[in-house]
Specification:
By secondary structure, the protein is of the alpha/beta class. The protein has 17 helices and 19 strands. The protein has helices spanning 31-46, 93-106, 151-163, 188-191, 221-232, 249-254, 282-298, 314-318, 320-328, 334-351, 380-387, 397-400, 423-428, 438-441, 459-466, 469-478, 486-502, and strands at residues 9-18, 24-26, 52-53, 60-65, 77-81, 85-90, 123-131, 137-143, 168-172, 174-175, 178-179, 195-196, 215-216, 237-244, 303-307, 355-359, 372-375, 392-394, 444-449. The protein has an eight-stranded parallel beta barrel with strand order 8-9-14-15-16-17-18-19, surrounded by five helices. A seven-stranded mixed beta sheet has the order 1-7-5-6-4-2-3, with helices on one face. The structure holds acetamide (ACM).
């Protein structure tokens, strides 16, 4: 048994179940689509027929929705393997999907190959597994703005999240360096904002210049919908992020009236915290609400991320109009001005039945009423928000920023942003801060890893930085804390890396 993330309970039994020419999948009603997905994966690598049918007498993998298992929750499942049949049971379709992922991991790693593999004995060790996630937000973020990532890779990334029973894909779609989602009302966001003329080729602090190579790309609304549907089929919710009021220079380049000064801004070719931010005019609030209206139409999930991080206040301090706005609204400083801006988005999203989530800076001038906080500068933002009764997602950079180096031997690694985040530190991360009471801890929805792509130009580099750290994080958000064991995890990783090999993942060798 080399399952990652580790299962909650497992009782082995003697014997194996062997897949053969005669094996069938059995499902009825809503379980059929889960059976079809599992069968498709199994057929691709085993080459066996594996029909999905309504009943069977022998050698069957049976998927059943079973309300009596509701104590396992919306994502839990039971898997029972005997030499004659395998039963996958769950109260909800998501649980059947995860039971299927576990079944795949009980088979030889070659089951993850995309073409039929000869000479493999397709057997499953017998036993009973009962499993359910520890947290309901098991997320990975991907920045497609610093470097654009094609739809095909976004789908592969989603498949890899599903392999690890992750259920949230945070799609970071807009930045200073590029706007990546088509907005029909404001076509210049992608006509202009999706393209930059060049990129800083390395660290400014090391004296790096610019590469002279234009870079860009964006997703049409149809492509984004395709990604949402692809993720939904894998029980992954897509959380789009539209950054405001900072990290917005690409939008200002497209629509200069969003800016605070007359300075002509280009889509930013370099990295770091940008002093240019959007202004606080009513027209700018309405602009972003228009953008969100289209975003809501593409992304049906409850959570919409509005960024809110790293918004320097210098331009608002220097702007007569921003200062007049602050006075007219009776706000005491620029942090309250940012909070007012975010509250306008909170009201808008609430009126449309959605929930705003933002980086922990949204706490600084007072938190919007229904906002959820993503705590990245450490755990403090998450602690403060949970104590104030807000839900939080933990993403502290020290533990889950996978753009950091995985080793201290940086000279032998591809150039990265900096930092040092080894695998054992990711593995050891505990999403519930020790300071929280049990009541406050209920506000911790879960945790999420981040992949900022300033120094990841290609999907292969993203995979290298993401894996195996995503594997370690998955265990922190899925498995019971008492079942975690780093030495045991590393042993299971030996088999798991063969799965990643079969899937063509450019993971960093352990
Ligand atoms: C962030 O890393 N600026 C959220």
């Amino acid at each position: 048994m080399n399952i990652i993330p580790q299962v909650a309970q497992h009782a082995p039994r003697a014997g194996v179940f062997g897949l053969s020419q005669n094996t069938v999948l059995v499902a009825q009603g809503e379980a059929v689509s889960e059976a079809e997905k599992l069968a498709a994966r199994l057929r691709a690598s085993t080459g066996l027929p594996l029909p999905v049918q309504a009943s069977a007498n022998s050698s069957a993998i049976v998927l059943t929705l079973d309300a009596s298992l509701s104590p396992l929750g919306d994502e839990g499942y039971a898997l029972d393997a005997t030499p004659e049949r395998i039963d996958l049971r769950a109260p909800k379709a998501a649980g059947l999907f995860y039971a299927g992922i576990t079944l795949l991991q009980l088979l030889p790693p070659a089951v993850f190959s995309s073409a039929p593999q000869a000479g493999v004995e397709w057997s499953v060790p017998c036993g009973r597994i009962e499993d359910q996630p520890r947290f309901r937000w098991r997320g990975m973020h991907l920045d497609v703005a610093r470097h654009f990532m094609p739809v095909a890779f976004v789908k592969k990334f989603i498949d890899l999240l599903a392999l690890h029973k992750m259920n949230t894909f945070h799609w970071h779609l807009t930045e200073d360096q590029g706007w990546r989602i088509e907005i029909k009302k404001y076509p210049r966001l992608t006509e202009v904002g999706a393209w930059r003329k060049e990129t800083r080729a390395g660290h400014e602090r090391d004296g790096a210049g610019f590469d002279g190579v234009p870079h860009g790309g964006f997703y049409t609304q149809d492509e984004a919908r395709e990604v949402v549907a692809y993720a939904a089929a894998r029980h992954i919710n897509v959380v789009p992020e539209i950054e405001m009021p900072g990290h917005a220079q690409a939008a200002i380049a497209a629509y200069p009236e969003l800016g605070n000064t007359d300075e002509k801004l280009e889509v930013w070719p370099q990295f770091g915290v940008n002093r240019h931010v959007v202004n606080v005019e009513e027209s700018t609030v309405l602009f972003y609400q228009d953008v969100l209206r289209e975003v809501l139409d593409i992304f049906p999930g409850r959570f919409i991320h509005v960024g809110g991080d790293e918004c320097p206040k210098d331009e608002w301090r220097a702007s007569e109009r921003a200062q007049a706005r602050m006075q007219a609204l009776g706000l005491k400083d620029e942090h309250e001005l940012q909070s007012w801006f975010i509250r306008r988005m909170d009201d808008f999203l609430n009126a449309h039945g959605r929930t705003l989530i933002g980086w922990d800076e949204i706490l600084e001038g007072g938190l919007a009423q229904n906002a959820v906080v993503m705590s990245w500068r450490g755990e403090e933002g998450g602690i403060d928000a949970a104590r104030a009764g807000h839900d939080v997602v933990m993403a502290p950079n020290r533990y889950v920023y996978f753009d950091y180096y995985i080793t201290e031997d940086k000279a032998n690694e591809p150039l990265a942003i900096g930092g040092f985040l080894p695998l054992d530190k990711v593995y050891g991360y505990e999403p519930v801060p020790a300071q929280l009471s049990a009541d406050e801890a209920r506000h911790v929805l879960g945790a999420q890893g981040a992949l900022w792509t300033e120094y990841m130009k290609t999907p292969a580099q993203v995979e290298y930085m993401a894996f195996p750290r995503v594997c370690a994080l998955s265990e922190g958000v899925w498995s019971p804390a008492a079942r975690k064991d780093y030495a045991d995890f590393l042993q299971r990783m030996a088999a798991h890396t063969q799965r990643l090999d079969a899937l063509g993942v450019n993971y960093r060798k352990l």
